[in-house]
Amino acid sequence: MTVKDMVEKLGLSIIAGKEGVDKEITTGYVGDLLSWVMANAKAGAVWITIQSHVNIIAVASLINLSCIIVAEGATIDKETIVKANEEKIPLLSTNKNSYEIIKELIEIGIK
Amino acid sequence: MKLNFEVDGDEFILAGEASSQVKKILKQLGVSSEIIRRIAIAMYEAEINMVIHANGGKIEVEITPKKVYIVLKDTGPGIPDIDLAMQEGYSTASEEVRELGFGAGMGLPNMKKYSDDLKITSEVGKGTTVEITVYI
């Protein structure tokens, strides 16, 4: 499933990084501590977090994550948006919490 | 090939920039994605530490057909007890930095785990040098 398919199915908002929406999603990872995400998230994963500052883009880009979903409607910094566009990392937003959005990801077949 | 980077300690926004550039170069050189992942994780952790703890510093990266050797030098406060700092979960990061998802006490353990060789030399009040080697 591509990021674009997931966005359409779950009605997520694309905040930035539109150029990267054709990436394939392999699996998911949830976490707000960046070192844990760096060490454990698999390439191609959709990352669910409540962190929204610019360093999340560096993390996603360095370990080749497919996209980031910022949960709980957390406010996203301007620098994060600029960097997501530069790095072509789709930055998505939802008002749902991490648990609710993961449940939906599983329902649409992301394992 | 040798690369040099200056890491600005005030520019939290740019933290990770040097690691991103190294990753791109290694990709162009055709290094395998698993090796690139290990280098990116170890170097990013070290780079972030420089920004969080030491107000920036200098990074030298040497790439040969056999290995990637990264030296990160700062003139920060130094590490009083390296063995303690190596323990998972131990962190001296500020509350402000922790709220951003850093300071989980996994930086040095991740560097150790993802490098083939890690050497840390530090003197309190003078600074810290981290040497990371990953064989290709």
Relative helix content of chain B: 25-40%
Query: Based on the structure given, which CATH architecture of chain B is correct?
Result: 2-Layer Sandwich
So, the CATH homologous superfamily of chain A?
HprK N-terminal domain-like
Broad CATH class of chain A = Alpha Beta
User: How helical, in percent, are the residues of chain A?
Assistant: 25-40%
Distance between the termini of chain A: 11 Å
Count of runs of 4 or more consecutive helical residues of chain A: 5
Query: Any idea how many domains of chain B?
Result: 1
| Biggest sheet character of chain B | 5 strands, antiparallel
CATH H-level homologous superfamily name of chain B: Histidine kinase-like ATPase, C-terminal domain
Query: Judging from the principal axes of the Cα atoms, what is the shape of chain B?
Result: globular
Strands in their spatial order, largest beta sheet of chain A: 1-5-4-3-2
Which blocks of ≥5 consecutive residues of chain A have pLDDT under 50? Answer: none
Run of helices and strands of chain A: HEEHEHEHEH
Name the average pLDDT of chain B: 95
* Structural class computed from helices and strand pairing of chain A: alpha/beta
Q: How does CATH name the architecture of chain A?
A: 3-Layer(aba) Sandwich
CATH class of chain B: Alpha Beta
How many beta-strand elements of chain B?
5
Oligomer: heterodimer
Describe the structure concisely for a colleague:
Chain A is α/β, with parallel strands linked by helices. Chain A has helices spanning 3-10, 34-40, 55-62, 78-87, 98-107, and strands spanning 13-16, 28-30, 46-49, 67-70, 91-93.
Keywords, please?
heterodimer, A: 111 residues, alpha/beta, Udp-n-acetylmuramoylalanyl-d-glutamate--2,6- Diaminopimelate Ligase, Chain: A, domain 1, 5-stranded mixed beta sheet, 5 helices, 39% helix, B: 136 residues, alpha+beta, Heat Shock Protein 90, 5-stranded antiparallel beta sheet, globular
